[in-house]
Design a protein that fits this description.
Strand order of the largest sheet: 2-1-3-12-4
Oligomer: single chain
Shape: globular
Radius of gyration: 22 Å
Strand content: 15-25%
Low-confidence stretches: 5-18
Length: 274
């Protein structure tokens, strides 16, 4: 009897030591925090032996953490730059692994009662570079445009600058805010405000249609228009790892790309890649 009890206790202790609690750290894009947290919460509820720690800070912050070795996964709303990959190679002898996990139509926010419903890419560029300063110049009321944007550590800032401003500088009058939620909050309270950011955050405000030029059709950032390319400012959302994922991290990323993981993409307000 005593022998059987000892065998049982030994088995319990051995089993206990074999249950390793694995931790995955995820850092980066503020645009992706809203979806990264949903992924982490659902995955941990089904895998209690795995902890997924999610923090934001911006794509630039996440990429720096990947290069410094202080995060396992970097979330980024823009591709890594060549210079960033070279830094990663210098430290870890790898260019990193890029994984596309969702798509986003970069939304242009205005307050709900703003009569303007669409803008061209050129008008957006002129507003954010300071060449257009009054809503009257784009078919709105005679009132100064209050322009909101993101900090330069944001991947959304970099994407907007590269793809809308053609790499020109933002006007000094653009008010930079620390996150997309802050931009939405500012625009929702500002009768003459305009901002940009991930579509998933667009609650309680209007989203403008955007057209490539004055002679084109204006499109809203719907899944259909983003997939077809008709909406002109859409982008992939990425995960980056230092090397090809293995073990628990591979299982987590495979799950994100599974039907269940991609359904969360849709529920949050972005668009699936599969």
């Amino acid at each position: 009897m005593i022998k059987n009890i000892l065998i049982l206790l030994t088995g319990i202790i051995a089993f206990g030591f074999s249950q390793k609690n694995e931790t995955i750290t995820v850092k980066g894009s503020d645009t992706m925090v809203i979806i990264a947290q949903r992924w982490a919460e659902l995955y941990m509820s089904k895998h209690p032996d795995v902890t997924v720690q999610v923090t934001g800070g911006g794509s630039g912050v996440g990429i720096s953490a990947l290069i410094n070795g202080t995060t396992d996964i970097c979330n980024a709303s823009r591709p890594m730059k060549k210079s960033e990959k070279e830094k990663l190679k210098q430290r870890f002898n790898t260019l990193g692994v890029e994984i596309k996990v969702a798509k986003d139509g970069l939304a242009i926010y205005v307050r709900e009662n703003n009569p303007v419903t669409e803008l061209t890419l050129q008008q957006l560029k002129d507003i954010y570079t300071g060449n257009i300063t009054n809503w009257k110049q784009v078919g709105g009321p005679d009132a100064k445009i209050i322009v909101y944007g993101r900090e330069n550590s944001s991947g959304t800032y970099v994407y907007f600058k590269d793809n809308v401003l053609d790499s020109e500088d933002f006007a000094p009058s653009v008010q930079t805010l620390p996150g997309t939620a802050a931009v939405v909050n500012a625009v929702s309270k500002d009768k003459y405000g305009i901002g940009y950011g991930g579509e998933a955050y667009a609650k309680g405000i209007n989203i403008l249609k955007v057209k490539k030029d004055a002679n084109s059709t204006a499109y809203p950032p719907t899944e259909e228009n983003v997939k077809s390319g008709d909406y002109p400012i859409s982008r992939y959302l990425y995960m980056y790892t230092r090397s090809r994922p293995t073990g628990v991290m591979k299982e987590y990323i495979d799950w994100i790309l599974s039907k269940e993981g991609q359904e969360i993409v849709t529920k949050v307000g972005y668009f699936p890649v599969k």
